[in-house]
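Renewal narrative, Specific Aim 1. Our central claim is that a sequence can be written position by position from structural information alone. The example that follows is taken directly from our test logs and has not been curated for this report. It begins with the structure tokens describing the chain, in the order in which they were read.
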């Protein structure tokens, strides 16, 4: 199954480090970040889960739940979490899915045979409260993901959903945003009281709206 942007993220039931979970029930009305790892007790994955754990409080403020996946079993996951907590100076609290039968990995297209026939690649999805897939990003197994970038994209998606704007290259929370071409400049002046800066008729900026 190939999942694309805008698709509904499929539901699943699986065992995890916090017990058996139903994915939709776990997410509830929250945003979700689902990300896969090639294997437990691997160095790059250890740093990724450690850093994600340190971001968890920030994600929670943004109504976002995190859930990881590896093709290893729950007991290995729990032992690995001990290593992550020790080496990364954190406390992993989000669940890690046990996917020994690879059902979830295959459902979400996390196994790329030309990369590895058995291990999952470093795929990550951001899923909105309507269960729609809003971001898909895949790294090779050898390259750790940039979770600051994932956090940045989450900020952008949530802002775009609450206001009629887009975010420019290298945008960070608090920077000026772009007014979409579908909104006329005259209408934009009414919609965006902080002001409109027109560079070209199709390229107009406004200070970031209040969240």
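The sequence written for that structure reads:
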């Amino acid at each position: 199954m190939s999942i694309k942007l805008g698709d509904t993220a499929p539901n699943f039931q699986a065992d995890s480090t916090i017990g058996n979970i139903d994915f939709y029930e776990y997410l509830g009305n929250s945003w979700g970040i689902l990300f896969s790892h090639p294997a437990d007790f691997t160095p790059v994955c250890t740093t990724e889960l450690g850093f994600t754990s340190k971001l968890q409080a920030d994600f929670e403020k943004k109504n976002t739940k995190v859930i990881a996946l590896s093709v290893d079993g729950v007991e290995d996951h729990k032992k690995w979490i001990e290593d992550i907590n020790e080496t990364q100076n954190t406390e992993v609290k989000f669940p890690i899915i046990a996917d020994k039968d690879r059902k979830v990995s295959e459902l979400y297209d996390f196994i790329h045979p030309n990369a590895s026939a058995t291990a999952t690649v470093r795929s990550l999805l951001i899923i909105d409260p309507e269960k729609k897939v809003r971001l898909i990003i895949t790294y090779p197994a050898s390259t750790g993901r940039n979770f600051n970038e994932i956090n940045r994209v989450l900020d952008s998606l949530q802002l775009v959903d609450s206001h009629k704007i887009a975010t420019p290259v290298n945008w960070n929370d608090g920077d000026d945003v772009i007014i979409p071409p579908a909104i006329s400049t005259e209408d934009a002046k009414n919609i965006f009281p902080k002001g409109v800066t027109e560079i070209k008729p199709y390229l107009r900026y406004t200070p970031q709206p209040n969240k």
